Bifunctional NAD(P)H-hydrate repair enzyme (Neorhizobium huautlense), 491 residues
Amino acid sequence: MIDLSTLIFTPKEMNAVDAASAASGIPSFDLMERAGQAVAAAALRRYPQAQRFVVLCGPGNNGGDGYVAARALSETGAVVAVFEMTDATALKGDARRAALACPLQASPLNAYNPEADDVIIDALFGAGLSRLLSDDIQQLAPMINDTGLPVIAVDLPSGICGLRGKVLGNALQATHTITFMALKPGHLLMPGRTFCGEIEVFDIGIPHRILTAHVGNIRKNHPSLWASYLPSLVGETHKYKRGHLAVFSGGASHTGAARLAATAGLKCGAGLVTVAASQEAVAVNAGALTAVMVRQVENRDDLMEWLGTAKISACVLGPGFGVGERARDFIFALTEKPLVLDADGITSFTDEPNRLFDAFAGGETRLVLTPHEGEFARLFPDIAADENLGKAEKARAAAKRSHAVIVYKGADSVIASPDGRAHINANAPPWLATAGSGDVLAGMIGALLAQGVPAFEAAAAGVYLHGEAAVKAGQGMTAEDLAEHAKLSLI
């Protein structure tokens, strides 16, 4: 069963839902009425002492929701002022009907002058906006933002692309956003997320069967999507059943990143963790590790010998490893193992990415790539440069091309699978942006792979648990603190 709270609809998918709802016999104006009433109720609940509600109405259905909200607010005795982009007689469909049913005399949008105690309802443009705002709206948005007045956005703050989360010129800064039935990508992707304030999702009566029939493959990352794949400890569990994770270290002066990944892997449930290092780095690592083992591996031949004797379940390569031919040699030796490739491992294929992609093309997905924005652009330059794609679409395109699970890192990390699934993560606190946090994430994902979790679910769970670990570690944490909190517990 689909967890409805995780559903994310693109604007195109939401249009299909609206059309299917109308075709099922639900009048579209009834949905607009419920949406506008929900906005009014939220405004009264949030700001019961408001001196004046100002409703800014656009030329489409978002504006129609605004006219309904204005009428509902006025019926409660609140003081309401309506400012519109288009005269009601020039509107069409449900928006026209809503405007004509609103008893308040509207003024032109450019006549609005903010007053000190205004509460603004932004019903100009919703999630379907995909073009730059007109000049007058672009001038209005910063003027309103500068006042610091509370803004309730209807569906999505005007100026934010519902698909990509991008700012289309300027955007209104909302304190609250009221959306309907489900989230849109623009609510979670950056920078759109920062303009939404607190988001509330209202059920306006579209049957869930219609939602599930038209939803695509994008979800809000949440344990309900992958918790059933996580390992559980039982009485007969022993260390080898919990998997053996190999983490590859850089040289003697670049060992810290591997130790962070290894520590996180051990904390996240791997039964055994071994750091593989060159002779010069073995002593450094051994002196700093206790429960994590150390193995000398100088070259590909050493690695192949080790792989032939050790029960290695999954590997992490890249953190502090070094860029170049040695990295590529090791990676090509690991093509049959679940592998998390991060940092230097990714950069080692900047000039020949297809060599990497082809090496992991067959069989089940077993490669997890964890690029930040710069690394993503180096590995997928054409996808990264496509302004028509949002982060979720870019991650999905990259996953399909690379035959790998992509963790496109950032404040709005997107996890994508070659089969088209994508999860947008939203639980990471801002203090997670600290040196070494990516190394910890690589170790956590590696630990889940070592315990038999499929690649996509391991990556999605790792990203979410990484955010939870940062919350528990608290502000001011270091990567070492983060690694200590890297656990499978969701409590």
